[in-house]
Amino acid sequence: MGRNFILVLIVLAVLMVITDALNVRPFFVVKETERALLLRFGEVVRADIPPGIHFKIPIANNVRKFDARILTLDSAPERYFTIGKKPLDVDSFAKWRVVDVEGYYTASGGGDEAIARGILQNRINEGLRNEIGKRDMHEVISGQRDELMQVLTESLDAIVQDDLGVEIIDIRVKKIELPAEVSSTVYQRMNSEREIEAKQYRATGNEQSLVIRADADRQVVVIEANAYRDSETIRGDGDATSARIYADAFGQDPEFYEFYRSINAYKEVFQGKNDMLIIDPSSEFFKYLKSNQG
């Protein structure tokens, strides 16, 4: 009995060594980040095998494992045209993952990821071409970019799940540029438009400046005229008041008033050193010079 048990153990050990060397182990392990297919002579017998340890028949069964994590498809920039036939170079990327292992295996020629990426890229390019072709340049660049990406993601996801067995989680645009041959023309047109706007602003500014200057000149004239009018009014009132005061004062003493006027006349006549005046000495003009009371 003991010898038979030892013999069985030896046989099992030899079989394990042989199967390990030939990679025909009767069990396999699927990681948390993987999904697997069990094939029997090339035909799928079990799909979407979950993580864990599973049994298989050596030689007859074959296992194919696929990455179940979210993958990135980073594509090269492609040229698309807007509804106005304006070219745009769009650099985009997509996030995707395998959700239907059997469908993915069949559509990608036996699980070839390069083939799957090529199919997915063609679908995305076609979707971008259709969506950008419905919009003008402004909508694509800024106005409706988020909406465009959401519509594209939802529409393509339904298609590729059926055709390729994968889920599109998100599609994003990294960069949108005008082609080099178009950029210079656009920039020149933008510069011309800015120059025209600048000239219009300057012309408007000059016109407003003339209006403001004319209004200021008018106000100066009005202010000066009002000031002159007021000054003349004040001067006239002052002269009238002065005359009234003189009249009141001298009316009380007419003799003194006549004397005051004569003194002022003497000052006016004799203020020059070389002036000569020929007047009769008996003239009334010298009345106060001859007066003993003076």
From TrEMBL:
It is found in: Membrane. The keyword Transmembrane helix applies. It holds the Pfam family Band_7. Residues 25-190 form the Band domain. InterPro entries: Band_7, Band_7/SPFH_dom_sf, HflC, Stomatin_HflK_fam. GO terms for cellular component: membrane. Keywords: Membrane, Transmembrane, Transmembrane helix. NCBIfam families: hflC. Belongs to the band 7/mec-2 family. HflC subfamily. This is Band 7 domain-containing protein. It comes from marine metagenome. The lineage of its organism: unclassified sequences, metagenomes, ecological metagenomes.
